[in-house]
Amino acid sequence: MKKSLLALAVLGAFAGAASAQTSITIYGSFDGGVRNLTNATAAGSRLSMGSNGTFNSNRIGFKGVEDLGGGLNAHFTLETGFNTGTGALDNANNQLFNRTAAVGIGGAWGSLDLGRQYSVNFKTIGLYDPFQYKYTGIIPLATQGGLTRLNNDIQYTGRFGGVGVMAEYALGEVAGSTGDNSTYAIGANFTGGGFTVAGAYTGGKRAPVAGLPADQSLRNFTIGGAYAAGPFRVAVGYADQKQDITAGVEQRTKDWWLGGTYNITPAAALTAAYYETRGLAATNPVAVNNDGKRKLFIIGATYALSKRTNFYADIDNARYDNAINSPTQTGVSVGINHLF
């Protein structure tokens, strides 16, 4: 699966651009499971299999690296997602490479990548998510702030010993303004002695919309850390986002979380965490009277059959404050995940 000829047969459109010095890898994840969720809708509970990956997101991807000499390399990533139950693409827009479509150049100084890619915010939070971006359809962190991925993104990443730095600028592509709809971010992290600490700030400006303020600014920051020793790992984090929606009114979302993992044996692991999300619809939530909160507790277990295949199971409970329907939901999932 890692031979260049096989990859080029699948990606025939890129055949002319490939060379003998380019290595191309096909990789992916296939997750199949069954989930039961109480109070899924007003009609009641739902038992389902069709998903984009319950434990691990379904994907198939292609990575290429060419050695340019002098310590430099050119590289690309194309990645798409799919639904387990139907085989369809995992997005309503039928966007083929919706997960990643980026190309760049790298060396000892870091990497500069252009295209659709994971944001600085996403990469930073992943360092201190207790579940490390598993159960992304249940846990809110993967989509925190709507900043999972950015289109038209120019991103720099570098690592120097235990210190990592990131910066990005995503073009808004609005005629007449280089700032409208743009997003920018910086992030840094440190790893050493079992500790990881990290933080990031994201800002942006949305294009003017009739009836809304000309400068609908976005402001998001996150900070957190993790510690691993022997079979244990604990992680804690916080994120806060403000988005202007009308004149003098902003929408604010705050998340905090805490959890840990214990590797019972080399094959079996148990992870538990608590995630709380609070949404404020305006600067004066009392007047608007729609302040809402979600409290999620989740515990999950995995058992590795091999380095690539594992069984998983989870129980999760979500409680909603000020929810009109379904104030409490309980989910149970079981399945198998295979990496290739």
Description:
With 340 residues, this protein is mainly beta. It has one domain: Beta Barrel (Porin), CATH 2.40.160.10. It is built from three helices and 17 strands. Strands 1-3-4-5-6-7-8-9-10-11-12-13-14-15-16-17 form a 16-stranded antiparallel beta barrel. The protein is globular and about 50 Å long. The N terminus is likely disordered.
What's the number of helices? Answer: 3
Roughly how many Å is the radius of gyration? 21 Å
Q: Quote the CATH topology.
A: Porin
Number of strands: 17
- State the share of residues found in helices, binned by percent: under 10%
Point out poorly predicted stretches: 1-20, 282-290
Summarize the biggest pleated sheet: 16 strands, antiparallel, barrel
Average pLDDT, all residues = 89
General form: globular
Total domain units: 1
Residue fraction in strands: over 45%
Physical arrangement of strands within the biggest beta sheet? 1-3-4-5-6-7-8-9-10-11-12-13-14-15-16-17
CATH class reads Mainly Beta
The name of the CATH superfamily reads Porin
SSE pattern: HEEEEEEHEEEEEEEEHEEE
The computed structural class is: mainly beta
Report the span from N to C terminus. Answer: 9 Å
In the CATH hierarchy, the architecture is: Beta Barrel
Please outline the helices and strands.
Blueprint: H1 4-10, E1 22-41, E2 44-48, E3 59-69, E4 72-80, E5 100-107, E6 110-118, H2 120-125, E7 149-160, E8 163-170, E9 182-192, E10 195-206, E11 216-229, E12 232-246, E13 249-263, E14 268-280, H3 285-288, E15 292-304, E16 309-321, E17 328-339
Antiparallel strand pairs: 1-2, 1-3, 1-17, 3-4, 4-5, 5-6, 6-7, 7-8, 8-9, 9-10, 10-11, 11-12, 12-13, 13-14, 14-15, 15-16, 16-17
